[in-house]
């Protein structure tokens, strides 16, 4: 497969209120197709440290990379995707700001999703999504057991990431794919559609909660495979 695809290395970047296990259903599907898969463990302590963790993962790959971001992970891949190894970007229900734009900036024109009311401040400027927030705003289409697992592994997220701004937006120079989650309660679905249009991304819309890679793993894996085959 590596001889026929421009990219056999897939680097997955999780978002806020989640960790690398949020890709647990997609990873086996990609491995079964012969891809080398790396799920980054963002510390979620600052945008700079999350970008650094992602760049380290890219550096460890042995060739061209498809970089995939979920939610806030989209901001990370927008910056880290400028790496020369990265040949394509996949945004899964993800933020895709331009240079000098933050999540706070780009969400202002859109309705406030209900999940954002379930964010609970913690010590030192960190945040957690409440268990009810995960059940009703983050992953409402998953099983009770899956929601409990997401709650158990949830890391605290620095509030500072929501005002962080990429210095250069990789999607201006790299081909992009976008997965819109039409039942998203963390990012307004119409905002996702607008970002996909701005990116001129190859777009797939799925009837999913925010965690599209857990509720529709086969479809998400297919988009990533399409990116690997189509990136130039």
UniProtKB/TrEMBL annotation:
Coiled-coil residue spans: none
Domain of life: Bacteria
Gene source species: Granulicella rosea
A Pfam family assignment: Abhydrolase_6
Name of the protein described by the UniProt record: Pimeloyl-ACP methyl ester carboxylesterase
Domain named AB hydrolase-1: residues: 10-222
Listed PANTHER family: AB HYDROLASE-1 DOMAIN-CONTAINING PROTEIN-RELATED, ESTERASE_LIPASE_THIOESTERASE DOMAIN-CONTAINING PROTEIN
SUPFAM superfamilies named in the record: alpha/beta-Hydrolases
